[in-house]
Amino acid sequence: MTIIDTMERSLAHNDGVAAWMEPFIAKLGNPAAWVYTGECDDSGSDSGAHCICGESIRYLYHITLPGSGRDEIVGSVCIDHFQTINPSLYADLVAAQE
To answer: Measured between alpha carbons, how far is 56 from 46 in angstroms, rounded to an integer?
Structure first.
């Protein structure tokens, strides 16, 4: 693999990060401010429920913005997106999966 290949892969990765961050920021504002409510629902395999990113999901993890009255739902795949943005929320969501 050449340095050009490495740089192209890095750029493609960054484009992917930007693609999933856009709906998060549009829906959540500052993702670091949200907390897990402790509620997770199994909506069934054909429920039509959607994550904040727009993807269809089965497991609904409820998060809230303290003091705002705002609640949102994230799916199990998008939990990983919080790993560096909101480590506390990420840890709580991962624990809920177990």
So the answer is: 9
* Location of structure tokens 């727009």: 54
Report helix, strand or coil for 52: coil
- What is the arrangement of strands in the sheet containing 70-74, beginning at the earlier edge strand? 35-42, 59-65, 70-74
Pairwise CA distance, residues 9 & 3, whole Å? 10
Place of tokens 């997770």: 40
CA atoms within 13 A on the CB side of 85: 18
Measured between alpha carbons, how far is 83 from 29 in angstroms, rounded to an integer?
A: 17
Is pTM beyond 0.85? Reply is: no
pLDDT tens digits for range 40-64? 999 888 888 998 888 899 999 999 9
What pLDDT score does 40 carry? Answer: 94
Neighbours of 15 (CB within 10 A): 9
